[in-house]
């Protein structure tokens, strides 16, 4: 046995690591298991890296339009690899912060995929961890659109790791995540087209605010097509 604990938490996202910290604070001998990096989707592959890149794109946009404010600059360009490097640094710093909280709180961390191997037993890469209680906080996974050609698309994890800004980008789905990427890449020079099957992008947002956002995207050269259902994806020539 790799260890014996009062509580073992499976999943190192905000649900999991907060549960582990609280259990430890209440006196339970606690362990946490995470197969990726501590912090969860928001910190590692969602809110934080996206906002870091968005800030870079916003600064680029402001610099290009800064002349009315007295900012005069020539040959303003955008260094995508540098922006990616900064994004990674921001994520690394926050991941280390979560790891530090767990260590300071007396929580034992295991790196690997967890599997329930019996009553009160969690298998982590072949190591058996015993637990009186097990908390499952594994979060969610990205869903692929079930349509022909889906394998030709990239998801919201993969787009964060692109090595260069795409010349053209079609975004299937005008929800919060899709529109966020649309605005960011349009600001960086991509020809962006958003395809949304509902009558309005950002369906849960007030229509007046959506109009402001779509006008902003149009000003960046982006296009939005609503009431548009994508039937398949095919590989083009460009």
List keywords for this structure.
2 domains, FAD/NAD(P)-binding domain, 36% helix, six-stranded mixed sheet, 238 residues, single chain, three-stranded parallel sheet, 6 helices, alpha/beta
What do these coordinates show?
It is a single chain. This protein has 238 residues and is α/β, with parallel strands linked by helices. It folds into 2 domains: 1-141, FAD/NAD(P)-binding domain, CATH 3.50.50; 150-225, FAD/NAD(P)-binding domain (3-Layer(bba) Sandwich), CATH 3.50.50. 36% of the residues lie in helices and 21% in strands. The chain has 6 helices and 9 strands, in the order βαβαααβββββαβαβ. It has helices spanning 14-25, 40-44, 47-64, 80-104, 176-187, 207-219; strands at 3-10, 30-34, 108-111, 114-118, 121-124, 127-136, 168-172, 191-195, 223-225. Strands 3-2-1-6-5-4 form a 6-stranded mixed beta sheet, covered by helices on one side. A 3-stranded parallel beta sheet has the order 7-8-9, with helices on one face. Helix 3 packs parallel to helix 5. The mean pLDDT is 95.
């Amino acid at each position: 046995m790799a260890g014996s604990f009062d509580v073992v938490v499976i999943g190192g996202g905000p649900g999991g690591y907060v549960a582990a910290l609280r259990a430890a604070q209440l006196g339970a001998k606690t362990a946490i298991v995470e197969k990726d990096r501590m912090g969860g989707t928001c910190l590692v592959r969602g809110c934080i890296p996206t906002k870091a890149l968005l800030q870079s794109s916003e600064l680029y946009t402001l610099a290009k339009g800064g002349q009315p404010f007295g900012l005069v600059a020539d040959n303003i360009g955008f260094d995508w690899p540098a922006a990616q490097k900064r994004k990674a640094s921001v994520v690394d710093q926050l991941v280390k912060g979560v790891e530090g909280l767990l260590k300071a709180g007396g929580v034992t961390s295991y790196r690997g995929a967890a599997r329930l191997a019996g009553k009160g037993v969690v298998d982590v890469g072949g190591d058996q961890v015993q637990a009186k209680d097990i908390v499952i906080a594994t979060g969610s996974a990205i869903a692929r659109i079930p349509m022909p050609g889906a394998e030709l698309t990239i998801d919201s994890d993969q787009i964060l790791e692109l090595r260069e800004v795409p010349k053209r980008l079609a975004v299937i789905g005008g929800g919060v995540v899709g529109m966020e990427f649309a605005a960011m890449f349009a600001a960086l020079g991509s020809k962006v087209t958003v395809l949304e099957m509902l009558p309005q992008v950002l369906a849960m947002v007030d229509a007046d605010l959506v109009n402001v956002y779509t006008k902003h995207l149009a000003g960046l050269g982006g296009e939005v097509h609503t009431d548009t259902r994508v039937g398949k994806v095919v590989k083009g020539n460009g």
